[in-house]
């Protein structure tokens, strides 16, 4: 009988002590690491020339095409977006309400679009969204028509916005 009482006491007190310890001394913190802090293994397209790493989008491009303004982050849609992409971006609007941080980059010049995609924003062919912070660091690249990619983007935006 005495052994059962001690076992019951330990079974109740031990989890409580662990919970209290983790509540006061534990830290649940997540971070979204910036991309291109080191050169990618597959390299950068030869036509882009030499890039310095850690990579930041040049200020001239930020001023001309991105127009950061007072936003700490900009989600830039590069090129044309299909209907599914628009649907997925509406999910971002529903999640965050104010979507003033979303910009669309569309130029009439296909070669310029290709150069911006490949050499400035370092977007793979499968991605058409790039998340850039106010320092010009690329924080994420996403495919706007892929629901799982947009889910990942929403999670990363939530984490980033809590830090800024």
Give a quick summary of the entry.
By secondary structure, the chain is α+β, with helices and mostly antiparallel strands. It has 5 helices and 4 strands.
List the helices and strands and how they pair.
Layout: H1 2-25, H2 59-66, E1 73-78, H3 83-96, E2 102-105, H4 110-120, E3 129-133, E4 138-142, H5 147-163
Parallel strand pairs: 1-2
Antiparallel strand pairs: 1-3, 3-4
Structure notes:
The structure is a single chain. The termini are far apart. The chain is elongated. Strand 1, helix 3 (83-96) and strand 2 form a beta-alpha-beta unit. It is built from five helices and four strands; from the N terminus they run ααβαβαββα. It has 164 residues and is α+β, with helices and mostly antiparallel strands. The protein is 45% helix and 12% strand. The longest helix is centred in the N-terminal third of the chain and has 24 residues, at 2-25. The chain has helices at 2-25, 59-66, 83-96, 110-120, 147-163, and strands spanning 73-78, 102-105, 129-133, 138-142.
Features:
elongated, 5 helices, 164 residues, alpha+beta
